[in-house]
Amino acid sequence: MSRSLPPLAALRAFEAAARHLSFTRAAAELGMTQAAVSYQIRVLEERVGTPLFLRGKRPISLTDAGRRLGTDTTGAFDLIAAAFEAAKGGASGVLTISVIPTFATGWLARHLYAFQLAHPEIAVRLHATRDVSDFEREPVDLAIRGGPPPSPALVSHKLLSADFTPMLSPALEAKIGLALREPADLLRYPLIDPTDPWWNEWFAHAGVKRPGFDKDDGHKMGGQDLEAIAAISGHGVAILTPFFYRDDVAAGRLRPPFDLLCPSSRGYWLCYPPGRRNAPKIRLFREWLLGHFPEEDGDLSSRKGIG
């Protein structure tokens, strides 16, 4: 079958520049001069017959044609890289994981050593962040994210649901001296981040009216990993996903005062671009991680037409 392909050197220069939105950074990545990158992109634009970049502004931006070609080209290069790794017959190198801090501190950091022990040829780098990584522009192999299902453009595996319930230090309960017999008793306790939407959802689930907390007062710790630390220190009651704090419950540092878990449509997800599905280092990490979450796993790509 005959294929009409552009010069691969030009395509490679374009893909790097589109990913970075910078000719300078593309040149540094490829070991070329900026002039050489610019020349290769001009060659590609002549073949396409339309500009791929808007050069009148700083930083540069992509035209509509450039955006389409950039997305498809990055995906194609990912497939080629994965096929090349598979052809070499093994996994090696650096595996960079972008992970939400709650999952990083509550589970992954405690178990990752087992993966590294089983696969010493793979160097794992964790990037704990609440920001959503851009796979096209950041050096990230895969991500573990919290929230609603990720973009349908990604392969996504659900690890667990983000169900939640109040948790507090037994020392705080002893200090306040008010027995927690029913959910409404919590209204007399200090609540950490009291305008967190999870609180209203949980109280509603418990059948408790809680007026006056429908507006954000600006007091935020930024994540339940920090809220848990505050709760363990006895500063108040936190609204948490108990899965991550089982060790703290077992050690007596935290306890859920009620057996009332509020279900959530949000969750924690392993995700990556479809072109990386068969990369050996990603396949090995995926199989290891999903082995710990067998009941929740659902590869959403199979339901959304992703190959």
Quick summary:
By secondary structure, the protein is α/β, with parallel strands linked by helices.
Q: How would the blueprint of this fold be written?
A:
Elements: H1 8-20, H2 23-30, H3 34-48, E1 53-54, E2 61-62, H4 64-88, E3 93-99, H5 101-118, E4 122-128, E5 142-147, E6 155-161, E7 165-167, H6 170-176, H7 197-205, H8 224-232, E8 238-240, H9 246-250, E9 267-272, H10 280-290
Parallel strand pairs: 3-4, 3-5
Antiparallel strand pairs: 1-2, 5-9, 6-9, 7-8
Helix pairs in contact: 1-2, 1-3, 1-4, 2-3
Task: Write a structural description.
The chain is α/β, with parallel strands linked by helices. Helix content is about 40%, strand content about 15%. It has 3 domains: about 10-85, Arc Repressor Mutant, subunit A; about 90-160 and about 265-305, D-Maltodextrin-Binding Protein, domain 2 (3-Layer(aba) Sandwich), CATH 3.40.190.10; about 165-250, D-Maltodextrin-Binding Protein, domain 2 (3-Layer(aba) Sandwich), CATH 3.40.190.10. It has helices at about 10-20, 25-30, 35-50, 65-90, 100-120, 170-175, 195-205, 225-230, 245-250, 280-290, and strands at about 55, 60, 95-100, 120-130, 140-145, 155-160, 165, 240, 265-270. A hairpin with a 6-residue loop joins β1 and β2 (about 60). α1 (about 10-20) crosses α3 and α1 crosses α4. The longest helix is centred in the first third of the chain and has 25 residues, at about 65-90. The model is unreliable at about 300-305 (pLDDT under 50).
